[in-house]
Amino acid sequence: MSDLFTVRITVRAYETDAQGHLNGNIYLQHAEHARWELLRAAGIEQNALLAKGVGPINLESTIRYRREVVAGDEVDITCAFIFGEGKSFRVEQTFTLPDGTLVAEVFNVGGLLDLKARKLVADPAEYFRSVATDPGVFGL
C-alpha cells in the first residue's frame, strides 16, 4: 500500500452500469469522497471553510479507466493535493485493487471560491493551512 492518503470502498451493485462495471459518475463520487476524507483527516471541516467565507469547487475532472471494476470489488483510492502558485490546485488520485492493480486514475483541478466575491481565492493552500489541525496530511 502507498504512503499516500488512502480510502477503501466496496463497490455496490447499484453503482454499476448495464455491463456490470462501476459507473463513470460513481468514480467521480468516490474520488470526491476521498478528497473530503483527506480534508477531514487534516482536521478541516466544511463548516470551518464556510466560516472563512470559502468553499471548494471543482473546475475540471478527468478519468482514465485502466481495468474493469465490478460489484463486490474493494478499491483503494489515493488522494494527493498539489498546490502551485496560482489560484487553482490539482488533486491526483489512483484507484487500485487491494493487490495493487491500477484500475483508474482521476485528475481534478479545483479551487477555493470566495463565497462573497464569487471569485477564486489567490492562495488556496493558505486557507487550508489556516483551518487544518494537521496540515501535514496535505504536505503543507
TrEMBL record:
<dbReference type="InterPro" id="IPR050563">
    <property type="entry name" value="4-hydroxybenzoyl-CoA_TE"/>
</dbReference>
<dbReference type="Pfam" id="PF13279">
    <property type="entry name" value="4HBT_2"/>
</dbReference>
<dbReference type="InterPro" id="IPR029069">
    <property type="entry name" value="HotDog_dom_sf"/>
</dbReference>
<protein>
    <submittedName>
        <fullName>Acyl-CoA thioesterase</fullName>
    </submittedName>
</protein>
